[in-house]
Amino acid sequence: MKIAFIVNPIAGKNRKKDITPFIKSELDKTNYEYTIIYTKGINHASVITKEYIDKKYGIIVAVGGDGTVREVASGISYKNKGILGIIPMGTGNDLARTLNIPLDIKESIKRIVKRKIKEINIGISQDNIFLNVASIGFDAEIVENTKVFKGFLKGKVAYTMGILRTLFTFKSKNIKIEYDGIKRDENILLVAVANGRFYGGGMKICPKADITDNQLDVCIIKNIAKFKLLFLFPSVYNGKHGKYDKYVEFIRVSSLKIYSKNEIVLNVDGDILKTNGLIDFNLDIKKLNIIV
Ligand SMILES: Nc1ncnc2c1ncn2[C@@H]1O[C@H](COP(=O)(O)OP(=O)(O)OP(=O)(O)O)[C@@H](O)[C@H]1O
User: Fold this and answer.
1) Does 155 score more than 80 pLDDT?
2) Any domain includes 288
3) Ligand 1 mean position to 292 CA, how many Å?
4) Which residues form the DAGKc domain (predicted)?
């Protein structure tokens, strides 16, 4: 089977590290035919993926962060052919965390060579795929605000500035939530719909989410006073926010609809969309084969 390594040269903290010698040293010991291609911009990984699937490459490895993984996954899903591999080189690497893929480069390449495959679910919101989490509300606005600062500040500083800005500007959202024949009116801080277990670089928003169970895990956090967020928000990192059960609720559904009269920020695996009216969250009937 032929392997294409699709490298995002600007992903993550290791962006100056040349991955080629690592790939060579592991792959040259095997019989795999392989090639290494570098991406040139947004969505290029998806275009290359489709091209190499047409060239009969059976494994397409995303070398980068969750953005690169998602682009390769959407190419594979579009073609309905091919196996996804991951060499985590992003800042967050949330899908790799969910699947216990080693964050160490050499170890993750060894996993590709071993080729143990798992079939995972693909989430869809507003025609966009997500492997980790789609969300609206406070966290989605942090993603949006962080992007503004990312242009001129380093990752962690930009993220902190994004949180601060969101704390000042955020207003709770009045929405309708519909699932399993139930319709609810809610005033929320956020709603996160999880396929995988992590987002935001290791935050366990839905700690019981299982990416293979054909279900979406949903975390609904009701609107709370901003000072209370100082306690609640850090607890999301280790998935302990469920203890604030007056505000935090978990449900498991096969699909979910949200209606918002006003424009709302939707985060789909780190991509930001602005939308209003109906927002839908589903699972694709197609699965994704991935090397773990
Ligand atoms: N040559 C390139 N120049 C600029 N942007 C690129 C290039 N190649 C890919 N990209 C874009 O870079 C973005 C970020 O990639 P990715 O998410 O993999 O890295 P990251 O943001 O460092 O990691 P993470 O999402 O795990 O935090 C993606 O949206 C991708 O489309």
Assistant:
1) no
2) no
3) 22
4) 1-129
206/231 Cα distance (integer angstroms): 17
Q: List the domain range (segments joined by +) for residue 203.
A: 128-283
Pick the residue whose CA is nearest to atom 30 on ligand 1: 42
- Could you report the per-residue pLDDT of 103-114, keeping only the tens digit for each? 999 999 999 999
Distance from first CA to last CA of the chain, Å, rounded?
A: 17
Tens-digit pLDDT profile for residues 65-110: 999 999 999 999 999 999 999 999 998 899 999 999 999 999 999 9
Ligand 1 site residues (CB inside 6 A) read 8-12, 39-44, 64-68, 71, 90-93, 270
Could you give the percent of the chain with pLDDT greater than 90?
Answer: 89
Neighbours of 87 (CB within 10 A): 29
Do 71 and 204 lie in one domain? The reply is no
Ligand 1 nearest atom to the CA of residue 93, by list position: 26
Residues 215 and 262 in one domain: yes
Token pair belonging to 267: 């985060």
Domain count, the chain: 2
Looking at 93, 115, 137, the residue that finishes a domain is 115
Within a domain: residue 204?
Answer: yes
Are both 228 and 252 inside the same structural domain?
yes
What average pLDDT does range 111-139 have in this prediction? 97
